[in-house]
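quick q for whoever's on today - can somebody do inverse folding on this one?? i tried earlier but teh output was garbage lol. tokens:
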């Protein structure tokens, strides 16, 4: 069975990126960073979503990200699905922070309930079958529009969305070329999916 153990973002300045993520979201594992100068322009074809329990936490996390140097892509607002907004980190990664709730039940805690890696794919059905062949199982599916895979005990969920729809949801143009600047850790053997997203074998240090 294939699950996500880690997400590695390829950034120009790992030290600066680490400071940003520690300040903005308090993310340690499963997020990893490594230096890369691979060219990438425009939309990189994925977003990372942080799911929280109430609007106050959305606002708190987005405000922290903006204070740490992120830029607004979509201001936090109510929608038919709940409440959320999107920002772009200084390294170029797009982050969405959202909740299904529309009213607060208490003070903000900035607690993150789930991390979701959303891949923007050209053919949802074909990519769905590819990942089924890799051993994943479907948790939710909405035709050729959206697929979410069962995550087991993984700290990160994997979902597929049409590339143009994902870009629209993030508030950016779907156009982009070059490296995705991301690697997914968790595969028993390395592989690359139909849209060029690379999976790597997770290196886990054995306990003494």
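ok took a stab at it. sequence:
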């Amino acid at each position: 069975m294939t699950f996500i153990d880690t997400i590695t973002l390829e950034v120009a300045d790992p030290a600066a990126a680490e400071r940003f993520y520690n300040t903005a979201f308090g993310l340690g594992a499963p997020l990893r960073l490594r230096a890369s100068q691979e060219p990438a322009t425009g939309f990189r074809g994925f977003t990372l979503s942080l799911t929280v329990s109430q609007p106050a936490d959305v606002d708190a996390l987005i405000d922290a990200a903006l204070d740490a140097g992120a830029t607004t892509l979509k201001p936090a607002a109510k929608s038919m699905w709940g409440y959320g907004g999107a920002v772009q980190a200084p390294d170029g990664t797009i982050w969405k922070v959202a909740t299904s709730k529309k009213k607060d039940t208490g003070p903000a805690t900035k607690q993150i309930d789930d991390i979701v890696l959303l891949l923007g794919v050209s053919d949802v059905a074909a990519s769905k079958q590819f990942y089924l062949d890799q051993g994943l199982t479907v948790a939710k599916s909405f035709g050729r529009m959206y697929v979410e895979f069962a995550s087991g005990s993984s700290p990160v969920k994997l979902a597929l969305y049409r590339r143009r729809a994902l870009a629209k949801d993030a508030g950016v143009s779907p156009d982009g070329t070059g490296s995705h600047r991301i690697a997914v850790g968790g595969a028993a053997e390395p592989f690359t999916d139909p849209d060029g997203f690379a999976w790597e074998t997770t290196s886990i240090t054995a306990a003494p």
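fwiw The chain is about 20% helix and 40% strand. also The mean pLDDT is 93. so keep that in mind when u check it
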